[in-house]
User: What shape does this take?
Amino acid sequence: MSFIRNLATSVFSYMYARSLKRQHLYKSKKDKIRNDVVDFEIDENVGLEVYWKILKVAEGPSLIFYAFGYEILRFDTYINGQGHCHIQLIECQQKCKSRLFLPEKTVEQQIERAIFELEKNLYYWLQRHPDSQIRKLKVDRFRLRIATEKAKKKMLEFAKKN
Assistant: This one.
């Protein structure tokens, strides 16, 4: 990890390096909090991941848009109205919050919002990513639509089952 940290801090901004470290730590514990993971491929190295997330404070269906090994957007939908998304931005001030809360109160409404963001605002979020490969990424709208429909169905299934 120290090699990655040294490289990241010498090349990238402090906040991005910190984000990479958090992502690395998150990946090591993700198996404990992610159940019933389902992957919906959009293109090679691009897709959606849906799973049931269990934390001490909340649980609910989650959705990740990933590309080339990066988690670009993650939507955590929770029954208690604390649904939010995590967005990897180019640069963030040191005291920046790592999530953006969703105004929707129910899990079903939060799922609708997540799908809306992916279908309507994906390029807005992609253009703010630190990696130029992600900023230049072109996602086939038809394949994205198919994947989001499948993801929505699975998330609603998780929400009803639990």
User: Anything to note?
Assistant: The chain has a mean pLDDT of 82. The longest helix spans residues 141-161. Residues 36-161 form one domain. Strands lie at 34-43, 46-54, 59-67, 70-76, 84-87, 100-101.
